[in-house]
């Protein structure tokens, strides 16, 4: 079997598995966020944190819950790292430096999971399990909660109430992420991923010296890392490491995990707003972009520019030989079109255009299908923009799901889509203008610029993957990337929740013959076009200086 056919068959198998999980998982999540019943363990949690899960919240109160919970998470994780040297199970590792501790705390709380350190050489068992793994669960649950609040904004009328943040967050952990991660961890352990609390031990000789590895609760962290679209690896090699990703099957299984919740949330959305067809329209938009990007990536990476690449079956530099070009391409597209950031190959070693595709996936806002929750609310914001554009074309007041998109709504949506590009472009420009950040670049020219652009794109979009080749463990990058992660995560949430509150206060607009049918293929095409055009106009000059210049020169 040739590598191209193998990659194509893996893509078909992945699509089939996602299709099988779509209806049951999407329906289950809709029930989770629609019921008023609480599990006993959930009531214990509510009592422990002093929250009343039955109190409805307006958007400012919901936002305060998100920010307060996240701020507490940053503080706890920062202190845990700073005290690592005196904690049991630290494996002899010292306390993390202040700037790196700040960067890592912010990274995991914002669901970014950017890592400027070697996991196996810096973090002990307590920090990995009680700190990083816990944030993998709760940060993902926060994203789903915000998405559900926006969906309620569309579904409800004549009220500003969006539900209860504490209830939504806790249910996301106890009813969705914990059971799913448990099952996924069992599969990974059965397939060879390690799960232990062993210390550092020698595994052989290498270049005349000893090679050492430490164990850890890898399978359980790997499961939620993918299922919660987190991405932070136990080891520096991330999902290219055989302890995290032992076989080609686990590689495909991990891609499935990072895609299944974001795709299934479109059915949850359709059920909660009372129109499954609306969910299918959003799903079709996400799937069109994902399949298109995957096909384009495979084409760029399988292109044979010379006898060496032809003999290797594609551009193999930086790719895990166990998985090959096809599987690595699927993983790269999936991880950058979601907010996962896990990697099974090094994006810096992709072809110039291939590296540009990974960047463009993040620049779209990671909405195809996006992160757990963040992908859905990002796509719904783009749907509001597309409806507004359609309204301008025909001279009619734009409406979406029975709600008018007026001045307030479009201003909030516009602020949402401007925040991340402003962070990426401004911080990239400042880093390139100053002398010190440039010293961290391994390469010069277009590829070196891509290293900087990728880093800030990854941080501001809460992706967390790295282009490789950039030394980000400096005070400048730890601080500025940390700020990009915080602002890129929580400022958009402000506008999402404000938009949700504004929509929930409206009364439904009756459908007429002139109403735009947003469940039809025509709207899906309009939405895809709006996403690509807006992103292209925003980022094209920066992409032209980096990956496009490199790709055209090769």
Termini separation comes to 29 Å
* Global outline: globular
Q: SSE order, as H and E?
A: HHHHHHHEEHHHHHHHEEHHHHHH
**Major sheet size, sense and barrel closure:** 2 strands, antiparallel
Mean pLDDT figure: 90
- Can you list the strand order of the major beta sheet? 1-2
Task: Name the helicity range.
Answer: 55-70%
Number of helices: 20
- Number-wise, the strands total 4
Strand content: under 5%
- Radius of gyration, CA atoms, in whole angstroms: 23 Å
Structural class: mainly alpha
Folded structure, characterized:
The chain is mainly α. Helix content is 65%, strand content 3%. It is built from 20 helices and four strands. The strands form two sheets. Strands 1-2 form a two-stranded antiparallel ribbon. Strands 3-4 form a two-stranded antiparallel sheet. The longest helix is centred in the first third of the chain and has 31 residues, at 125-155. The mean pLDDT is 90.
Essential attributes:
554 residues, mainly alpha
List the helices and strands and how they pair.
Blueprint: H1 3-32, H2 40-49, H3 59-82, H4 98-109, H5 119-122, H6 125-155, H7 165-190, E1 200-206, E2 209-214, H8 218-227, H9 248-272, H10 276-302, H11 307-312, H12 324-337, H13 352-363, H14 374-394, E3 399-400, E4 403-404, H15 407-433, H16 435-438, H17 445-460, H18 475-505, H19 521-545, H20 547-553
Antiparallel strand pairs: 1-2, 3-4
Please give a quick description of this structure.
This protein is mainly alpha-helical.
